[in-house]
Design a protein that fits this description.
Elements: H1 2-5, H2 8-18, H3 24-42, E1 46-49, E2 58-60, E3 66-68, E4 75-78, H4 85-88, H5 93-103, H6 112-129, H7 133-137, H8 140-148
Antiparallel strand pairs: 1-4, 2-3
């Protein structure tokens, strides 16, 4: 799960490699809030994700419902993980979350900033894993802002 992958050592490595390019106070604040952020992620409802669904992976039943027949690359993650960051700042984000909440009872109490935090941490984690430290650092202030709102 996302909260297991996010480790202090990766953030410290990012800080050390960026040296003067990173604000030590911002990174220190992230490290201080890390356990709180992980806890917030643990309490988010989970979602089932299947990336890259293509038409050949679907079966259409007689009643015009579609079913996914290829489940080779699925994952369970907190809602918001792997959500494109650009989607967080679109006008439709809140409406999309409201629609999802109308379909799932466990999401009706979730605030948009909680989903944003999950998406930001997910992208941050991916950038760290790919050694894109400057790009990961660029998300630190957004992560801290989303984490403070909760």
């Amino acid at each position: 799960m996302l909260w297991h992958r996010l480790e202090q050592q990766s953030i410290i490595r990012m800080r050390d490699l960026l040296d003067r390019l990173a604000d030590p106070a911002a990174v220190a604040q992230l490290l201080t809030r890390l356990n709180d952020i992980k806890q917030k992620l643990r309490f988010l409802p989970l979602s089932l994700t299947v990336p890259d669904i293509k038409p050949g992976m679907l079966w259409k039943a007689g009643n015009s419902e579609y079913f996914l027949i290829n489940w080779t690359r699925w994952s369970i993650s907190p809602i918001g993980e792997k959500l494109p960051i650009s989607a967080l700042y679109e006008n439709t984000f809140s409406y999309s979350l409201e629609f999802i909440a109308s379909e799932r009872e466990d999401i009706d109490k979730i605030e948009p900033h909680e989903v944003q935090l999950s998406a930001l941490i997910s992208e941050f984690d991916q950038r760290l894993q790919r050694a894109r430290y400057a790009e990961a650092y660029a998300l630190v202030s957004k992560i801290l802002f989303a984490a403070k709102r909760g």
